[in-house]
Amino acid sequence: MNRIIIVGGGVIGLLTAHELASAGHAVTLFERGETGRESSWAGGGIVSPLFPWRYLDSVTALASWSQAVYPAFCAALAEHTGIDPEYTENGLILIAPDEADEAQRWAAQHRHALSLIDRDTFHHLEPQAAEPADAALWMPNVGQVRNPRLVRALRQRVWQLGVDVRTGDAVVDLLMTDGRCRGVRSTSGTLEADAVAVCAGAWSAKVLADYAAPPAIHPIRGQMLLFKAPAGTITRMVLESNRYVIPRRDGRTLFGSTIEDVGFDKQTTEAARDELYAIATARFPVLKRHPVEAHWAGLRPSSPAGVPFIGRHPQIGNLFVNAGHFRNGIVLGPASARLLADLVLDRPPIVDPAPYRWTAARG
Questions:
Q1: DSSP string spanning 105-117?
Q2: Are 133 and 97 in contact (CB under 8 A)?
Q3: CB half-sphere exposure, 256, CA atoms < 13 A
Q4: What mean pLDDT do residues 123-134 have?
Q5: For position 93, what pLDDT does the model report?
Q6: Cα Rg of the chain, angstroms
Q7: Residues whose CB falls within 8 Å of the CB of residue 153, separated by 6 or more in sequence, listed in order
Q8: How confident is the model at residue 362 (pLDDT cuts 50, 70, 90)?
Q9: pLDDT tens, residue by residue, 164-213
Q10: What is the Cα–Cα distance from 338 to 65, expressed in whole angstroms?
């Protein structure tokens, strides 16, 4: 049995802990705040990259693996924990008609269901859209999860598997001896391990800043609105110009998101609220009848070309990273965690790990 430390308790850290603990290893997870309360909680939960054909094949490879396992994985979490992540396959309409040829080539190459739809079909699929586009793209098999419930279920499940979760305990330093990472120093003391995996999202580069080759990860703020609407108000996820609507099973409806390079500032702004509200209610006038229940911001871990860093440090033994998923932490999470566990445990990897290496070219 290996002793493994995970730094970071968001969805990536929790999924990585889940993979390693499920394989029979002793895992300790350090989280400076509460588990799953940063980007993992703040995002939308779409189980697909936005406009997926715009990404490199390395992102598609992870997304496709995760999409294949998500329904059964969420069902198993619900069974074990009593917390349902509400995986729901209600499809995604994408308004990008000028990219139809590229999108259809991508879908054929990667065997994803995607079709070009006309205005009447758009209206049939989502009647609440104010102005259905004359042409749009429809991906019927795209699902979503209710990400706050997903991280709650993961937190419960890793506890059941024996993971030692230490919240409110920030890692302040890595313990190094002869070019190897032998553990961490946190606010509560020191702990040694056979391997350390940094899964700290937008904060990962800070954790690794004092060591060679820190990953090029930095925060990008995104703000979101939540409308309190009854079930069935809007039924499909719709994406246009990087703004999306996501209806939950109970009717609550998310609308987001901004993309703001403001460092580690997580404050919401009235300007963003007004902009999101104006766009949301213009596209879906029915939302004017329902109050905005919440407005929040989160910090996404941006990386070059949106390709995460997953793998072993090029110079420091026993130090790993799983971070930099940008807007795709939820959809890439299960595959990223499995790949990282494969590399830590020297198992055959689920996908070629080369594109995600610390020093791999991105973009």
A1: HHHHHHT---EEE
A2: yes
A3: 27
A4: 96
A5: 98
A6: 20
A7: 74, 77, 78, 81, 83, 84, 85
A8: confident
A9: 999 999 999 999 999 999 999 999 999 999 999 999 999 999 999 999 88
A10: 10
The torsion angles phi and psi of 67, rounded to 5 degrees, stand at: -60, -35
Percent of the chain surpassing pLDDT 70 = 99
**Backbone φ, ψ for residue 44 (5° rounding):** -90, -30
Sorted by where each begins, the domain ranges of the chain are 1-88+143-216+304-363
Given CA atoms 286, 288, 291, 297 in this order, what sign does their dihedral have? positive
Look up tokens 């269901």; give the residue.
113
Classify the phi-psi angles of 313: left when phi > 0, otherwise alpha if psi is within -120 to 50, otherwise beta. beta
What pLDDT digit, counting tens, does each position of 306-346 carry? 999 999 999 999 999 999 999 999 999 999 999 999 999 99
Asked if residue 50 lies in contact with residue 242, where contact means CB atoms within 8 angstroms, the answer is: yes
Closest by CA to 337, choosing from 326, 323, 348, 327, is 323
CA distances from 24 to 17, 129, 324 (A): 11, 49, 27
Residue ranges of alpha helices (H) inside 208-323 are: 270-283
Q: State the residue for tokens 């995607």.
A: 114
Q: What is the pLDDT of residues 13-41, one digit of tens each?
A: 999 999 999 999 999 999 999 999 899 88
The CA angle 204-319-15, to the nearest 5 degrees, is 60
| pLDDT band of 360, cuts 50, 70, 90 | confident
The mean per-residue pLDDT over the stretch 151-158 comes to 98
CATH 3.40.50.150 fits 1-88+143-216+304-363, yes or no: no
The 3-state DSSP class for residue 67 equals helix
DSSP 308: P
Strands (E), 129-281: 135-139, 164-167, 171-177, 180-186, 189-192, 195-198, 218-227, 237-240, 243-247, 253-256
- Return mean pLDDT, the chain: 96
